[in-house]
Amino acid sequence: MTTEIVKMSSKGQLVVPQDIRNMEGLKAGDRFIPFPIKEGVIFRRINIPNIKTEFKNLSTEIEKQFKKQKITAKDVSEAVKWARKK
């Protein structure tokens, strides 16, 4: 990896050199949090989960557990009625 100088655009954008993007597996759309430090700024990549995917995965897991525990729709309905009375 060679050291490169990058320039900030008038919109505040920086271009991450290609070899660094390849080495770190960075891709368009990745999100980062900037951390100001005495010497400059550090950018940390963050992972924001996709809500639809997370919900689908959770629903699938709940369905598996319901089948394993033999919980029926009637059981759920009765539990909701019971909880609403409390």
Task: Describe the protein's architecture and organization.
The protein has 86 residues and is an alpha+beta fold. It has two domains: 1-48, Ribbon (Pemi-like Protein 1, Chain: D); 51-85, no CATH class. Helix content is 45%, strand content 16%. The protein has helices at 18-24, 51-69, 73-85; strands at 31-37, 40-46. A two-stranded antiparallel sheet has the order 1-2.
The total count of helices amounts to 3
What does the radius of gyration come to?
A: 24 Å
Average predicted confidence as pLDDT: 92
Task: Sketch the major β-sheet.
Answer: 2 strands, antiparallel
What is the CATH architecture term of the largest domain?
Ribbon
Stated plainly, the CATH topology of the largest domain is called Pemi-like Protein 1, Chain: D
Major sheet: order of its strands? 1-2
The secondary-structure class comes to alpha+beta
Note the run of SSEs as H and E: HEEHH
> What oligomeric arrangement do these chains adopt?
single chain
What's the β-strand tally? 2
Q: Which percent band covers the strand fraction?
A: 15-25%
* Spatial shape: elongated
End-to-end C-alpha gap = 64 Å
CATH class term of the largest domain: Mainly Beta
- Overall tally of structural domains: 2
Regions with little confidence, pLDDT below 50 for 5+ residues: none
* Amount of helix: 40-55%
Brief write-up:
With 86 residues, this protein is α+β, with helices and mostly antiparallel strands. The chain contains 3 helices and 2 strands; from the N terminus they run αββαα.
